[in-house]
């Protein structure tokens, strides 16, 4: 994912580790922002890679080494991928592996996720561009 995003301009990657100012729960995960000035912008990242269950989310990890890619693709891309609008329909269990699904908490806001993408890697790469472009547009609207 980092290799795909490195092709795009103005992507800030945060990788919290022990000893920095980020909460321990974030250590080992990666957070991706559109940031022309290299500073963490207000709001959520447009993509994340997480390696652990977070509080207030359904458990999804079934074995050590699992990771989940989370992408904010927006309403239209979400509907194209999943065949229904965010907040509608039902999907697989949060533990489903290598399946594009609604994020278990942020799906209603146009977020998708994939646990351990392999077969779905091309879809994830395509949707990284969608998420990046959306973050770029939001930044440009805020800074007009």
What's the overall geometry?
globular
How many DSSP H or I helices? 3
Element string (H = helix, E = strand): HEEEEHEEH
Count the beta strands: 6
* Cα distance spanning the termini: 30 Å
Flag low-confidence runs.
none
Task: Give a short account of the largest sheet.
Answer: 6 strands, antiparallel
Detailed description of the structure:
- This protein is globular.
- It has a six-stranded antiparallel β-sheet, with helices on one face.
- The termini are far apart.
- The protein has helices at residues 2-5, 74-82, 121-142, and strands at 11-14, 30-34, 47-50, 68-72, 101-102, 111-115.
- It has a domain at 43-142.
- The chain is of the alpha+beta class and 144 residues long.
- β5 (101-102) and β6 (111-115) form a beta hairpin.
- Helices cover 24% and strands 17% of the residues.
- The relative contact order is 0.17.
